[in-house]
Amino acid sequence: MQNPLRRPQGDHAFRRGNPPFHDAERGGPRGDDQDQDVMSKGMRGHFVAMSGEFVGTVMFLYFAFGATQIANNVIPPTEASLDRLVYISLAFGFSLATTAWVFYRVSGGLFNPAVTLGLVLAGGLPPVRGALLFIPQMLGGMVAAALVSCMFP
């Protein structure tokens, strides 16, 4: 019996897009009626990019908004302070640099609907991809703001 976690010898299942699992009722490889994936390869790529944009946007804004709330709670906002301004600026910068570095291979690391729109208008991003990335970017911003609002009342 072949280990289901190893690649089959003939590599025929991978060329058709099927994992190397066997159908217990038929005793052989999966039938042809199950050869179609639930999502096409293009839709799967869009879904992965949308998920990456959502998670990346939430992480970027969560760290940046959290640092801003900490800075505003330590030093009262009525006082002007260069230290607070530098801290908030560095928090946004390092948060964006870190999340863009982590997610640039997954979704491009855009995290900003204005950047996405600019890339679509300049022709650097297909319009369908831009429209699909706009939604998780907006939702990610809302989720990050809600999380920080709940953590720092």
Fraction of residues in helix: 55-70%
By secondary-structure content and strand pairing, the structural class works out as mainly alpha
Shape label: elongated
Number of strands: 2
Are there runs of 5+ residues with pLDDT below 50, and where? none
Discrete helix count: 5
% residues in beta strands: under 5%
Mean pLDDT: 83
Largest sheet: 2 strands, antiparallel
Secondary-structure element pattern, one letter each:
HEEHHHH
Distance N to C terminus = 59 Å
Explain the layout of strands and helices.
Layout: H1 12-15, E1 22-23, E2 28-29, H2 41-74, H3 82-103, H4 113-122, H5 127-151
Antiparallel strand pairs: 1-2
Helix pairs in contact: 2-3, 2-5, 4-5
Describe the overall structure.
- The chain has 153 residues and is mostly helical.
- The chain is built from 5 helices and 2 strands, in the order H-E-E-H-H-H-H.
- It has helices spanning 12-15, 41-74, 82-103, 113-122, 127-151; strands at 22-23, 28-29.
- A two-stranded antiparallel ribbon has the order 1-2.
- The longest helix is centred in the middle third of the chain and has 34 residues, at 41-74.
- The radius of gyration is 23 Å and the shape is elongated.
- The mean pLDDT is 83.
Brief summary:
With 153 residues, the chain is mainly alpha-helical. Helices cover 62% and strands 3% of the residues.
Keywords for this structure?
153 residues, mainly alpha, two-stranded antiparallel sheet, 5 helices, 2 strands, elongated
